[in-house]
Amino acid sequence: MLTRTTIHADGAWRDALSGETREILDPADGLPFAVVAEGGAEDADAAVAAARAAFDSGAWPGTPVAERAALLRRTAGLLVRDREELALLESRDAGKTLAEGRADVDCVADAFRYFADLVLAEGPGRVVDAGSDTVHSVVVHEPVGVCAMITPWNYPLLQASWKIAPALAAGNTFVVKPSEITPLSTVALIALLAEAGLPSGVANLVTGPGHTVGARLAEHPDVDLVSFTGGLTSGVKVAQAAAPGVKKVALELGGKNPNVVFADACRTAEGFDTAVDQALNAAFIHSGQVCSAGSRLIVEESVRERFVAELSRRAARIRLGRGTEDGVECGPLVSLAQLERTEEYVASALAEGAVLRSGGRRPEPSATRPAGGYFHEPTVLDRCHRRMRVIREEVFGPVLTVETFHTEDEAVALANDTEYGLAGAVWTADAARARRVAGRLRHGTVWINDFHPYLPQAEWGGFGKSGVGRELGPSGLAEYRETKHVYQNLAPRPVRWFSG
Ligand code: NAD
C-alpha cells in the first residue's frame, strides 16, 4: 500500500490537521492501493495563508519572466523523465490505459513548454497613444494573486496543469485541490515543481473532499481567483460561494457533444471506415469519461443502418480490462458510483424506447478484468430522440446514442439542442458544407473530419453551461492576470478645474 503525505503548505509536506486519511481505490479491482491525507477546511485555510504570504512578499510575482519560464521548462523536463511512473500512477488512480496515461503526460509537458514560450515572447506592455508628447501611457498585465484550483478525476494531471502552468507563468501563487478519488498525480506534480526550484509557499496542495476543502477555497476571502473544472452542479456551487467576494471565476464544466456525420463522408470505403473509427474513438476513449466525448452520434438517415451496424460490431470488440495490462484498449469506470450512474442511464434510455445495438451491461470477469472492477461494456443505443434523458444529460460513461437527420438544417438544430456547448464535430466530403456547419455550431471547439485533437496554442472551453472563460492559448494565460493602465504625466501642471 502506498502511503503518501499529501498536504503541502509553505514548502512542507504534512498530514491533515485532523489526522484523518482516505483510502484510494484501484478502479480495476475496487481494492485500496494508496492512503492519502483527508484534509479539511482548516487545512485549506493554512494553505491559503501560505500562498497569500508568498504572493504578498512579492518574490514570485517579482521574479523575472525569463526565470519563471525557465522553471516551467525544467518542470516539463522532469515530467518527461518521470513519464512512465506518472502514467502508471494515473492508470491505477483513474483507470486509464498506460497509453492514455503516457499521452496525458506528453500533453502536460507540452502545456508547460507552451506557457513558458508564451510569456517569454511578450513585450513589456502595450503603449497607448494618449494624444500628447508629455504623456506616456502603457497597459501592462500583472498576476491576479492567490489562485484556488479545483480539479476533476477524469484527467487529474492534465486538468491541474492547464491551470498551474499559466498561473505560474503569470506570477501567481496557488492552492490546488485535486479530486478526492484521484489525487496522486497532482501530488507528484507538486513534488516536481519543488524539485524544479519553485520557492516555498508558491505551490500548495490540499487533498480532501469538495464540500469541505473545495467549498472553503471557493469562499476564502484571501483567494483572488477560483478556477474550477468539474460537473455543472458543483460548478454552480463554486460560483455562488465565490460571488460575495467578487472573485474572478473560471469554470470548465461538462459537455454533451454532437458528432455529426453526413452521408457524403461515407461515400468511399476509406471515408466510411475513417468516420466509423473516429466515432468509436470519440465516444469510448477512457470509457467515455471525457468532457468532450462524442457521445451523441447524429448521422444522416440514409447511412444510419450501415454506419451503426459497423460501429456496434467494432464496439463489441473493444478489449476491456485493467489499464496496466498489455493489449487492453479500455479501462474501467473510475468508481462504483460512476458505473451505477452509467447503468441507470442505459436503463432509462431503454425504458424510453432506445434500441440496444451493442453492450449495455457489466462484462463477465476475466484474466484482465477482476470481478471487483468497475467495468461497463461500450454501449450503442440506436433510435434515440431529443426528449430522452440520455440525450440531454451528461452520462460520463461508455454510452453512445444515435439520432438521425435528413437535412443540414436539421443536423445543426440537433447538434445545438443542448444546454452545454463544449465541443462537436462535423464529417463531410463537401468543404463548403463543412465550413457552413462549423460556423453554425454553438460549441467552444469544432472539429471538421476529426475528433478530439486539441492544441496548447488554441483555446479550450465552452459555450452555454459548459463554462465561463478559456484554458490554453493566450486566453488561458489571460485568465490568471489583471490588466493595469499606467498613465505617466511627464510634465505635470495644475489643471485649475476649481477656481479657488
Ligand atoms: P465534480 O464536480 O464532482 O468534482 C470536481 C471537483 O470539484 C472535485 O475536486 C470535487 O471534490 C470538487 N467539488 C465538489 N463539490 C464542490 C463544492 N461544493 N465546492 C467546491 N468544490 C467541489 O466533477 P467530477 O465528477 O470530478 O468530474 C467530472 C465532470 O468534470 C464532468 O462533468 C466533466 O464534463 C467535467 N470536466 C470538464 C472538463 C472541461 O474541460 N470542460 C474537463 C474535465 C472534466
UniProtKB/TrEMBL annotation:
Active-site feature positions: 252
Stretches assigned to the Aldehyde dehydrogenase domain: 13-486
Annotated GO MF terms: oxidoreductase activity, acting on the aldehyde or oxo group of donors, NAD or NADP as acceptor
InterPro entries: Ald_DH/histidinol_DH, Ald_DH_C, Ald_DH_CS_CYS, Ald_DH_CS_GLU, Ald_DH_N, Aldehyde_DH_dom
Keyword hit for Iron: no
rRNA-binding found in the keyword field: no
UniProt pathway annotation: Amine and polyamine biosynthesis; betaine biosynthesis via choline pathway; betaine from betaine aldehyde: step 1/1
Keywords: NAD, Oxidoreductase
Family per similarity comment: Belongs to the aldehyde dehydrogenase family.
Name this protein carries in UniProt: Betaine-aldehyde dehydrogenase
Taxonomy of the source species: Bacteria, Bacillati, Actinomycetota, Actinomycetes, Kitasatosporales
